[in-house]
Amino acid sequence: MLDDATMSALVLDAKNAKFSDPRLPSRLAKLTAKLAANPAESFPKMLTSAELEAGYRFFGNHVVTPDGILSGHFDALREAVGREPTALVVHDTSTFAFDPDGAREGLGRIRSAGQAFFGHVSLVLSDDGQRRPLGVAALTTWVRGEEPSRGEKARWLKGVELSSLRLGGARNVVHIFDREGDDYALLDDLNAGAHRFIVRLNWDRVLSRLAPDSPRKLSEAMAKVECVVKREVKLSKRIDGARSPKQKSAHPSRSMRKTTLSMGATSVTFKRPPTQERTGAPTLTLNVVRVWEADPPEGEAAVEWLLVTSEPVDSLEALLLLVDRYRARWTIEEFFKALKTGCAFSKRQLGDYEGLINALAVFVPIACRLLALRTAAQHDAEGPATLTLEPDEIEVLRALGRRPLPENPTTRDALLAVAALGGHIKWAPDPGWLTISRGFTELALLTRGWRAAKVQPPRDQ
Fold it and tell me: Domains of the chain, with CATH numbers?
């Protein structure tokens, strides 16, 4: 069962939010209760006229900020991480796009049509192989002009520093970055700050040559790395869809398949790029792991990762653990789906940037809870349902649900029972985010009535 610290991190701790106006925490608590019970519903449908007006006033209040909204969440998350032997902090950026109609104030333009802002999230996961979402340690947002600003690169280090601050300087966290985090200055700052990290490399970097015959480029050094261990993995399907040309190039489409990955590692010394001569150390020595698919199917692009890390790679166990930790990075993609589809964030009709980012902060813990429900069913399908649902919620599903629960329901039983409330049928494929969200909405409403009935005093008739 989720401990109290983890559960309070996944349910926005509104009463302990820190605002200069003492009335705001109670207003946030009332608003959060409504939104958590109806995450995919529009504001006008879930709120009364008075509540809707109060909600818009709250989101537009100049003293309300995302950090203030999430302050109680950060406190609960720090306690939850303190209970974990190790935790993973996955960092990534997503675009929050809106239709051009309505001309929301303060947003930027994307692809000559539509409006958007960008959000950089530091999602904290358990390091027990199940990748349980514990919460979000940092959320930063910004609006882009005609061209990306040079300051956007700073978001990666800012996410690390904010996470470290809010987690009380915990040394039991490992930061995970995709290829956008491959920046010499960032790697140098992480190393200098004694942060633990795994970053997927994007550039064929120049190495510091210790001898005339030593490799000049990273690719030359990694080509000499021998396979020391292999692992069979399942690769998910990837389609082009609406992805940008940059995304299609970096992550080509592929079919779902099982494959065998080879792994090996070495230590290299990077040479500081000429463009960054004024920052950082002149050289940087780190471990690099190569993960590659030696025999891909015909017509499929071979999988290959180069992971640079502060972590040891001197044993088979350490090498396998490091690769598994990096594979947890994909969980943040599911978090963004939970936020955008499960919570229908892109359909919110707030009129300006400040209101939208405040609403985003309110939905962040709600998306974490939806993700926790689905993650447990995927990675610990036979675990007890109490890992993701509270006892009252299980009682409601047993008494009022559309799918019978066994005597000792598992996490997968719980997910399918919740999805059934959202319209999922028994023989259909696994439920999507919208179905899960609808089911969770129904469960929240039923549970609220269930709890109210339990506290009613008995009456003689």
Answer: 4-237+253-368 (3.90.350.10), 380-454 (1.10.740.10)
